[in-house]
Amino acid sequence: MAERRALVTGGAGFIGSHLTEKLLERGYTVHVIDDLSTGRLENIAHLEADEKFTYTVDTVLDSALMAKLIAQCDTVFHLAAAVGVEYVIENQLKSIQINLGGTEVVLEHATREKKKVVLFSTSEIYGKSEAVPFKEDDDRILGPTTLTRWSYAVTKAVDEIMALAYSREKDLAVVIVRCFNTCGPRQTGQYGMVLPRLVTQALAGKPITVYGDGRQTRCFASVFDVVEGIVTLAECDDAVGEIMNIGSNIEVTIGDLARKVKDLTSSSSPIEHIPYDKAYGKGFEDMMRRVPDLTRIKSLIGYEPRRSLDDIVNSVINHLKQ
Ligand code: UDP
Q1: Which residue, by CA, sits nearest to atom 3 of ligand 1?
Q2: Is 152 a catalytic site residue?
């Protein structure tokens, strides 16, 4: 089989590093570019011995560099972006610049070089819509521009729209994936993500912080299921031009998640409820339920999340114990 070459932007991040591992496992040659804003070299250090793996520490905003890296690959997996509700709230301007500017650089060079792009989007796109489960073509409901949370969803929506426009007008081969609450080893709670944060608190014997009344729900997917699905999608001709939800559709309340974390870590930490305003600042808006409709990806590639919530929580516990 001909050599398959991937460029993974944001490849030193949580999902990016697992994706890189999966691509190497499937025989790809992989180059990672990461500016280490939230990514970490320790996430990819174990891959350095692999002769099919190389990396560059730099920003995707460097257009000349990206032109060179994209020319050397067949598929760009574009994950480099500002992530995490707290990170985005604290770094709003930087998040907008990287999420819009970085994607434009990737789409432009990939179009010129006739390379495929797998664009990583997010369930945040659906905003506070209550019409669960969310289908890819559903309406989106976002709060006002003055609430920083929503700027992440807006930039990611513009990324998607830009990618679709390149695909329609300039024949770019693009696959768009909307990830729903993906979890596993190497994810950190530092930027807001609930599961590693609660596990870190439980292991340290500190209060387990549940925001609001804890009745809001999420569906947590294993990063191992997600990266398998994404590599399969990247190789599927029928996925080109499509937008796909990916994740798990098994719903859990954050209150129940906190109790599960406490049980599985055998922690004596109390579960503490914190008002949203105190956690994120005044006027913060959360969504009460977030569930993907997975019909499209299932019919296209037979995707089915396989790992259970207990497996996911245990994988995070084991990682954070180390
Ligand atoms: N959350 C929480 N405690 C924390 C961090 C987050 O209760 O320490 C809640 C958060 O308010 C949200 C859910 O957990 O309702 C998931 O938050 P996360 O930031 O992980 O992702 P989101 O799904 O909101 O993008």
Answers
A1: 210
A2: yes
Q: Which domains, from first to last, does the chain contain? A: 5-182+220-247+291-306 (3.40.50.720)
Handedness of CA 287, 291, 296, 300 (dihedral sign): positive
- Take residue 287 and report the two structure tokens written for it: 């969504």
Q: What are phi and psi of 167, to 5 degrees?
A: -65, -45
Residue-wise pLDDT tens digits, 155-209: 999 999 999 999 999 999 999 999 999 999 999 999 889 999 999 999 999 999 9
Q: How far, in Å, CA of 162 to CA of 176, rounded?
A: 11
Q: Which tokens belong to 112?
A: 């010129």
> Coil, helix or strand for 166?
helix
CA-based angle 17:19:20, to the nearest 5? Answer: 65
Best residue among 90, 132, 188, 218 to mutate for probing ligand 1's pocket (most ligand atoms within 8 Å of CB) is 218
Which of 152, 191, 211, 280 is an active site residue? Answer: 152
Whose CA is closest to atom 23 on ligand 1? 181
Residue 217 CA to ligand 1 center (angstroms) comes to 9
Nearest CA to ligand 1 atom 16: 194
Instruction: Single out the residue of 87, 91, 34 nearest to residue 59, CA to CA.
Output: 34
85-99 in b/e form (b: 16+ CB < 10 A) is bbbbbebeeebbebb
Residue 277 CA to chain centroid, in angstroms? 25
Q: pTM for this structure? A: 0.97
CA of 193 relative to ligand 1 center, distance in Å: 6
The CA distance from 257 to 255, in Å, is 5
From CA 43, how far away is CA 41, in angstroms rounded?
5
* Cα 199 to ligand 1 centroid, rounded to whole Å: 13
